[in-house]
Specification:
TIM Barrel, 6-stranded mixed sheet, 10 helices, disordered N terminus
């Protein structure tokens, strides 16, 4: 029921109470509550009426309450906790007035506030009206107590419980444009993975320990393939600094042997290396294979036994350098382990074959690969090794590496490219596949298969583009929490917005 400004809500004049096992009537039902704002839902639920308290509905006790009669005097000077309480409900930032003498007041009795509310303020006037005001923005439970003091000093203690609800909002008429291929609705995605971290330790580092801040200086991130048996204590310390700055440590085996030729060592190369990294606090979930030697059995071991999310392993017969598409099949659980990639070794032994498909011709192979990702709207995974460190296999000179990072930074700033770690991009790409299409129902956005095993496993927020009619404030909430929403501008009469929604956390409401 709603109440308008200046309107009182009264209980029926047929209210009764129990005295000496006889049903009697109140002489003055009085005012109960006045809402101090416009139309606001409010509920008064007293044990006098027991919230319905019977088989017809309501949630209160079914016991008949005992209420003091105006002519009944108690023991002098005694304070009693009375069984009768008031339970009220109002909305965020809404004041309410409560008439505390809606019971039959004994002759000469007075009312006074005893315990003030923790999350608001209450004042009692000479007409026994208690005005309660919740603290600004507070939502939740609050209560205060008051005494009814009779002429002989006896006190009856009453409790008023108030449930402050979030203000009701109107859901908007939402049109879903699409779930973006990549986070932030970027055109393409890109990951760099530097192999062989710890090969020379922090003292030399293959240029990786020395140059990772070139990425952070540009607000970029990369991943580093760790060979765990090569790492010393100082290396692990610096690795933690790198992770704290947004870099990712990925597993590159325990001792960097060819895993196709040493199947008997898989428990060490996969299992022990994983244990070392996880015990050190690194949330390792992506694998890069020594010598890029891999097969389906390795993919299955990572997926089924070690709780990995993906790996760098091109499908059989696919050339290196092929850009990964945004779409992927939900019928192949090993697809996240078959990410395609391009190898860079342009400045190594001139007698060694070039592995990149971008070798030859004009332009830098690093930039050409990432430009292809933008051209095709896909994900490029770049394999690198040392930086400006000739002892490293596949060394990339600093005067090639830094201009490439500048090129990537420009594409990121244009939202042509989302650069992130391979695990983060694998999570997004897989969630988009396994969680199903987004659907809209009366202003709420949800996904078709949020409980699917793949959706639960990868569980990444997905970027959703929507539009609503008209202008004004638009808000997005999921499980009672606000989530950021970005205005994209106007398309005709529709106002477009972008937000990230985790499919596994339930529906997201779009309200004004």
């Amino acid at each position: 029921m709603g109440a308008k400004l200046g309107m009182q809500i009264r209980l029926t004049n047929n209210r009764t109470y129990l005295q000496n096992n006889e049903i009697k009537k109140f002489k003055n039902p009085g005012r109960i509550m006045r809402i101090l704002n416009t139309v606001v839902p409010a509920i008064l639920c007293a044990s006098l009426l027991a919230c319905g308290g019977n088989s017809q509905g309501g949630g209160g006790s079914q016991n008949t309450p005992i209420v003091p009669d105006e002519n009944v005097q108690g023991e002098e000077g005694v304070t009693r906790n009375n069984a009768r309480n008031l339970n009220l409900q109002t909305t965020k930032n809404q004041s309410i007035e409560i008439d505390l003498d809606e019971i039959a007041m004994p002759v000469g009795a007075t009312l006074s506030i005893k315990d003030t509310p923790s999350h608001g303020e209450v004042a009692l006037n000479s007409l026994h009206i208690a005005s309660y005001q919740p603290k600004l923005g507070y939502v939740g439970a609050d209560e205060f107590t008051y005494n009814l003091t009779q002429a002989n000093g006896q006190k009856d203690l009453y409790t008023v419980t108030i449930d402050i609800k979030a203000a009701p909002t109107a859901k908007l008429e939402v049109t879903l444009e699409r779930v973006a291929n990549w986070k932030g609705d970027a055109t393409a995605a890109y990951s760099i993975i530097h192999d062989d971290l710890c090969a020379w330790g922090v003292s030399a580092g293959g240029g990786m320990f020395q140059n990772w801040r070139e990425l952070t200086d540009r607000n970029l991130v990369a991943a580093y393939g760790v060979v765990t048996s090569w790492c010393e204590e100082a290396d692990f310390t610096e690795m933690q600094n790198m992770v704290n700055a947004g870099m990712e440590m990925v597993n590159h085996s325990h001792s960097h042997i060819n895993l196709l030729e040493n199947v008997e060592d898989w428990d060490t190369e996969f299992g022990l290396s994983t244990e070392v990294l996880r015990q050190r606090g690194f949330e390792v979930s992506y694998f890069v294979y020594p010598y890029d030697a891999f097969n389906d059995a390795m993919f299955a071991k990572l997926n089924n036994e070690l709780d990995y999310l993906g790996s760098r392993g091109s499908p059989p017969g696919s050339p290196f350098g092929v850009v990964n598409t945004a779409d992927m099949s939900t019928f192949d659980v090993l697809q996240p382990y078959r990410n395609k990639f391009d190898i860079y070794n342009e400045y190594n032994d001139p007698d060694e074959p070039r592995f990149s498909v971008y070798t030859g011709g004009s332009g830098d192979p690093l930039n050409k690969y990432v430009d292809d990702a933008v051209r095709y709207g896909g994900w490029a995974v770049r394999e690198l090794h040392g930086i400006d460190f000739p002892e490293s296999w596949g060394n990339v000179p600093l005067d090639i590496y830094l201009p490439h990072l500048d090129h990537v930074k420009t594409l990121v700033d244009q939202n042509s490219l989302w650069m992130d770690t391979p695990t983060n991009i694998t999570r997004y790409r897989s969630s988009r596949a396994y969680c199903g299409d987004a659907i809209v129902n009366e202003g709420s956005i949800s996904f078709m298969t949020p409980t699917a095993a793949g959706c639960q496993k990868y569980s990444a927020p997905l970027t959703v583009i929507i539009s609503v009619p008209g202008s004004g404030s638009v808000k997005a909430t999921q499980n009672g929490e606000d989530i950021p929403i970005k205005a994209l501008g106007v398309d005709g009469t529709r106002y477009r917005y972008m937000l990230d929604i985790d499919p596994t956390r339930g529906a997201t409401d779009i309200t004004s």
